[in-house]
Amino acid sequence: MGTVTAIGARTGVCGLALAGVDVLVAEEPDAVRRAWRALPGTTGLVILTAEAAEVLGPEAMAPDPSRPLTVVMPR
After folding, report:
1. How far apart are CA 23 and CA 38, in angstroms?
2. DSSP 3-state assignment of 27?
3. Residues 31-38: what's their mean pLDDT?
4. Which of 11, 14, 29, 47 could form a disulfide with 55 if both were Cys (CB 3.0 to 4.6 A apart)?
């Protein structure tokens, strides 16, 4: 498995860095989209805040072998 990356608002994702997760702080919708597009090819799991998941839409959560596994943090 590749690396684990979290995308979302600072308050929702920064603590995950203590567990070795790569954190991409994205406070605004455009920043969330940029972070999603910039995921390195080594990413195996993406953790999204609920707000980031809303920005990306259901396509981000749909199973697809060309994308990393994606999960959404509860609110």
Report:
1. 12
2. coil
3. 96
4. 29
